[in-house]
Q: What sequence folds into this?
């Protein structure tokens, strides 16, 4: 039974013709609702097919870019690093050489991000992958702490006691948290704070990445998960799109809110199922996450 159609007469009793019409309507409603569901499923499949075709073309382009740029960039970096190790390199050139090496690293990072996004998503909820979320969170903050110090931002980690094992690979959780923390660091001014929290929640583990930056401009809130959309001068616009995709791969949820307090700050929340949780329903796994409220400027 899908539902109940309740009719109350006002005044006179319902006539036989009216009652027959209502009975006929009740008989037709389930078929109509089923047809609407089928149409929605068809549209969803068409959208997914179009997305996969677009990503296939993007993957071919990314592979070409990788072939043509990664090897030259690696050779350039190796030569420059050897120059930095040479005592004959004048001190006046060392700073510029280090700057070029850093720019090569930045270009390599952007290229790798493009390659990762171009690969089709695979629903991995039933693959048996698992990891300790506490260990991954500590590893992420350890790697990014130097960047936080360089920006003058305090990076803190808080993890609840007990098991924080999730049904997702360590590589995927690391990529999710790294993108969120990097976005938070870039959105936080000098002297600000970024906090990464992990705690059991609803049969899984919830991660929360919060900053006290300026928050999100209302004009970009509907576009922050859109691939290649960015407000950064040197951004690719893929960080949050990658996060959303990887969360969906393991049947998780992505939500955010901004402002958090005093008209400032942004908080991203990622929920992933626990290691011993039941596999996610296939009809739900991989669907686009729905924001609880908003997202960060410059994400």
A:
């Amino acid at each position: 039974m899908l539902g109940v159609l309740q009719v109350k007469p006002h005044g006179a009793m319902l006539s036989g013709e009216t009652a027959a019409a209502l009975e006929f309507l009740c008989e037709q409603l389930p078929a109509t609702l089923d047809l609407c569901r089928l149409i929605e499923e068809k549209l969803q499949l068409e959208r997914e097919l179009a997305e996969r075709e677009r990503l296939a073309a993007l993957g071919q382009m990314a592979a070409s870019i990788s072939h043509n740029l990664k090897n030259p960039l690696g050779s350039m970096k190796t030569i420059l690093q050897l120059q930095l190790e040479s005592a004959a390199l004048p001190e006046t050139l060392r700073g510029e050489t280090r700057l070029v090496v850093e720019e090569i690293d930045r270009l390599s990072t952007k290229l790798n991000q493009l390659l990762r996004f171009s690969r089709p998503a695979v629903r991995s909820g039933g693959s048996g992958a698992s990891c300790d979320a506490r260990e991954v969170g500590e590893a992420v903050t350890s790697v990014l702490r130097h960047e936080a110090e360089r920006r003058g931002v305090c990076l803190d980690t808080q993890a609840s006691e007990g098991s924080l094992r999730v049904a997702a690979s360590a590589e995927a959780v690391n990529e999710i948290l790294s993108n969120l923390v990097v976005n938070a660091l870039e959105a936080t001014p000098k002297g600000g704070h970024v906090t990464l929290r992990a705690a059991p929640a609803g049969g899984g583990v919830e991660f929360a990445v919060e900053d006290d930056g300026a928050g999100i401009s209302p004009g970009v809130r509907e576009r922050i998960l859109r691939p290649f959309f960015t407000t950064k001068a040197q951004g690719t616009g893929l960080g949050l799109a990658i996060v959303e995709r990887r969360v969906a791969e393991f049947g998780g949820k992505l939500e955010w809110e901004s402002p958090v307090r005093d008209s400032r700050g942004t908080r991203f929340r990622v929920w992933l199922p626990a290691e011993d949780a039941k596999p996610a329903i296939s009809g739900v796994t991989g669907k686009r996450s729905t924001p609880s409220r908003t997202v960060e400027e410059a994400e």
About this structure: Residues 279-299 have pLDDT under 50 and may be disordered. The first strand starts at residue 131 and ends at 132.
